[in-house]
């Protein structure tokens, strides 16, 4: 049912955009309406390209599915900015026409050259943003925060490197993660934490799991690497990067456990551990709220997870989605580390994310507790970042 709604919504948007595109195309290709094939071919091409995302969502897991998903994601990135730019330019011309009519009388008529200029500008903006976005998405930056040691009740300085949202899938390349590991190892980390979404909803779509595990096993940290699962760390169908099945149906691939061990990560699933060598701190790792995995309906409530802990130890919470932030102080969490938001990933998604989520990015105080949200390393849907960065986060307790 959810997929049907998504496809209907997507189809309506595509058809609306095609209707918007028809007039400028007609002015350029067939102003006298004598050669309908000139109009039919670009429309057929656009519809065919738009269908890649739909076919990728409807096709069972396998090479054919991943082919359509891979190219559907890329095409979606171009569609978003081409049609978005086209809409803005057409709207601007309509406003100009209305102003012209109000000031001078008579309707201002768009000419063939105006239509051509609109399409050329839309195409240039689209290509430029997607190329730039691809480069930004594959350039891992290092961002950092400094916090006092007593934030976590530490006896000596500590350096934590936080990474999240690897999203290894049909559009991934090992080079991005080699770059990530190189950046991590440059930091001489005491502890490395991975905040979920290791894969992108299909373990099988990772072309060579052993190659990725080999890359991640090279991460160096004094006290080890700990990870949690995110909402995409289950096998489920995708529509342009978005999922549409219920949490009870979202099951983890049996091969995930062995792969995570090969990566050198210790997974935390609604559990609290003392990290050997770090005195005075407890590390808590939560299951994902939206997709706990393994057929589980609900993850353990935060209060229950942290109930009965020694008050002398301060809790560092690792959770994929930045949720329950207003409960952190009351639950006894000193610092929460999350990902999930991608900080919106693609403009104007970053604006929406910052306006309508509790915390989309960065460091924020929640009473006496603090929360850090990373924009992550990977991407879902279009393999681009526009208005956000790919990053690892270095947190120094001094």
Entry summary:
The protein has 398 residues and is of the alpha/beta class.
Record keyword descriptors for this entry.
about 15% strand; six-stranded mixed β-sheet; about 400 residues; elongated; alpha/beta; 10 helices
Q: What is the number of E strands?
A: 14
How much β-strand is present in the residues? 15-25%
Provide the spatial order of strands within the biggest beta sheet.
1-14-2-3-4-7
Shape: elongated
Structural class: alpha/beta
In helices, the fraction of residues equals 40-55%
> If you average the pLDDT, what whole number results?
92
| Poorly predicted tracts of residues | none
From N to C, what is the helix and strand string? HHHHEEHEHEEEHEEEHEHEHEEE
Specify the biggest β-sheet. Answer: 6 strands, mixed
Layout of secondary structure:
Blueprint: H1 2-29, H2 36-58, H3 63-104, H4 112-137, E1 140-147, E2 158-163, H5 174-186, E3 191-194, H6 209-216, E4 225-227, E5 238-239, E6 242-243, H7 255-263, E7 265-267, E8 271-274, E9 281-285, H8 302-305, E10 314-318, H9 328-331, E11 333-338, H10 349-356, E12 362-366, E13 369-373, E14 390-397
Parallel strand pairs: 1-14, 2-3, 3-4, 4-7, 9-10, 10-11, 11-13
Antiparallel strand pairs: 2-14, 5-6, 8-9, 12-13
Helix pairs in contact: 1-2, 1-4, 2-3, 3-4, 5-6, 6-7
Q: What does this molecule look like?
A:
With 398 residues, the chain is of the alpha/beta class. Strands 1-14-2-3-4-7 form a six-stranded mixed sheet. The radius of gyration is 24 Å and the shape is elongated. The mean pLDDT is 92.
């Amino acid at each position: 049912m959810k997929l049907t709604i998504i496809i209907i919504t997507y189809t309506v948007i595509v058809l609306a955009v095609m209707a918007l595109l028809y007039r400028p195309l007609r002015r350029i290709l067939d102003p006298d309406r004598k050669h309908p094939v000139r109009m039919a071919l670009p429309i057929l091409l656009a519809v065919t390209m738009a269908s890649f995302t739909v076919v990728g969502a409807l096709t069972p897991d396998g090479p054919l599915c991943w082919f359509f998903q891979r190219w559907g994601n890329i095409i979606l990135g171009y569609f978003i900015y081409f049609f978005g730019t086209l809409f803005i330019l057409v709207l601007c011309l309509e406003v100009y026409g209305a102003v012209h009519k109000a000031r001078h009388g008579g309707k201002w008529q768009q000419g063939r050259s105006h239509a051509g200029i609109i399409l050329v500008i839309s195409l240039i903006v689209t290509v430029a943003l997607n190329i730039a976005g691809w480069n930004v998405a594959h350039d891992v930056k290092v961002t950092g925060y400094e916090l006092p040691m007593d934030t976590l009740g530490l006896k000596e300085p500590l350096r934590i490197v936080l990474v999240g949202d690897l999203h290894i899938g049909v559009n991934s390349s090992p080079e991005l993660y080699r770059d990530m590991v190189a950046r991590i190892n440059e930091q001489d980390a005491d502890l490395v934490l991975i905040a979920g979404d290791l894969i992108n909803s299909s373990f099988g779509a990772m072309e060579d799991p052993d190659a990725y595990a080999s890359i991640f096993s090279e991460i160096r940290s004094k006290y080890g690497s700990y990870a949690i699962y995110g909402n995409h760390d289950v096998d489920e169908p995708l529509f342009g990067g978005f999922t549409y099945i219920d949490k009870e149906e979202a099951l983890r691939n049996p091969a995930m456990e062995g792969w995570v061990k090969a990566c050198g990560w210790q997974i935390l699933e609604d559990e609290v551990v003392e990290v050997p060598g770090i005195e005075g701190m407890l590390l808590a790792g939560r299951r994902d709220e939206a997709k706990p995995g393994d057929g589980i309906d609900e993850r353990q409530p935060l209060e229950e997870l942290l109930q009965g802990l020694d008050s002398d130890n301060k809790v560092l919470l690792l959770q994929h989605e930045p949720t329950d932030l207003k409960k952190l102080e009351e639950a006894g969490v000193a610092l929460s580390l999350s990902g999930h938001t991608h900080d919106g990933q693609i403009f104007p998604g970053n604006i929406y994310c910052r306006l309508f989520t509790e915390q989309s990015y960065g460091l924020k105080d929640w009473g006496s507790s603090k929360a850090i949200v990373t924009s992550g390393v990977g991407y879902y849907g279009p393999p681009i970042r526009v208005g956000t960065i790919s990053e690892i986060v270095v947190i120094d307790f001094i």
